[in-house]
Amino acid sequence: MKDHELLELESRKSFDFFWNETNTDINSKGYGLIRDRAHGVHDSSNSSCNGRLSGQMGCVLCTDICSIASVGFGLSALPIGVERGWISRKEGFERAARTLNTLLHHADQVNGFFYHFLCMKTAKRARKSEVSIIDTAILLCGSIVAGEYFGGSVWETAQLLYERTAWNWYRDDRNNRFYMGYIPEQGFSGWWDFYAEQLMTYILGAGSPTYPVPGNMFYDFACYSTNDDKKGFVYSWFGSLFTHQFSHAWVDFRGKKDLRGVDWWENSVRASLENRAYCIRMSKTFKTLHEKSWGLTPCDGPFGYQGRYGSEPSALLNRMHIVDGTVPPAGAAGSIVFTPNESLEAMEYYYNNHPKLWGRYGFVDAYNVDVLPNWYASDVIGINKGITLLMIENFRTGLIWDLFMKNRWVKKGINAVGLEDYVSKADIA
Fold first, then answer.
1. Among 287, 303, 360, 301, which residue's Cα sits nearest to residue 331?
2. pLDDT tens-digit map of 90-146
């Protein structure tokens, strides 16, 4: 299969996840909510939710779960589907408009921030989940993309969602950092004090027309980097590759530096190459890992979901990442804008050599041939299909970047945090 054919196929199947795994009951308060995960190999149905609620704790018996981040990726997927002819513009507009209406009027939230997980049918808080700033940010990025693309009532509702988000409420003014999470029964906990996927939150927060936060929040988290000036980069706590990808799915950092002189685009290029280099070094220990099988990032594993999959460096002493040979295709695919040749090589290897990695939604979540019997995931996860779809489209056309970056409040946020052009896009191309 030629490169463009594989990219088209994986994109279409990733899009199908967001189109199919959605509540499309127009009489439901949860219309437009998208599942956190789905079976990627077989067509067995997801469990249904009986909608039983338990006070402020949410739908504790819910087994049919929406991830707010999945909805953000799904809203971003709609313009891709229209532009590629997979759905009509009318279909995309209606799906976006009804979904945003659900978010504005029915979905559980606190001061504009949504719970990480919601019940698919009721749009109520599920599984005692936290009010999540990062998942809300992903949702708002998707809302902005859909609003800019479809205009009209979609743009208006996306604007209302953004205006409602009280960024200053989620900020700890004692240290000028966003809290890590909020649980109504417990209050705020932790801070975003280390570099991770949160760069989008500072831009959205600083650009807010209603509840703006200081742009200098962009500089009040720790930036630990490797010592090599030519290959060094700012790394994240678990060394997970998604932390170098997620904000870049919407924010076009190419040719920009912040006030510290950090080029976050180049930083993700280096991080992706180092993740691959680490997998090559570890190939002596794990046969799943090699130059064509890399991209360590959270995913399903042989013993369940693992959020600490990553590579060196991690934390302060390289002790926080976990590696057991498990590789998710989304790791390399999500870095395709940074490492096009290496990412394509990995995707071709997965497709041509591991047929059990392929299912109705394209690549399933992960595989590991270091365990017996060889293990292949049965599910796909929304955020991993989402980063794959958006990054492939940005690699091919730049569509998501173009839509997001033209938003007036995004422009305000980028200026407020001090991101400045130092290389033209023409020079990069």
1. 301
2. 999 999 999 999 999 999 999 999 999 999 999 999 989 999 999 999 999 999 999
Q: Model's pTM, two decimal places?
A: 0.95
Place of tokens 């945003």: 100
**Where in the sequence is the domain holding 360, given as residue range(s)?**
3-428
What dihedral angle (degrees, nearest 10) is formed by the CA atoms of 57, 47, 42, 15? -50
As for how many domains the chain has, the answer is: 1
Query: Which of 182, 156, 162 is CA-nearest to residue 171?
Result: 182
Q: Both tokens of residue 422?
A: 């130092």
Q: How far apart are CA 424 and CA 118, in angstroms?
A: 42
Q: Which residues contact 309 (CB under 8 A, 6 or more apart)?
A: 238, 240, 296, 297, 298, 299, 301, 321, 322, 323, 326, 328
364-384: pLDDT as tens digits: 999 999 999 999 999 999 999
Strand, coil or helix: 289 = coil
CATH number at residue 308: 1.50.10.140
Report the Cα 69 to chain-centroid distance in Å. 7
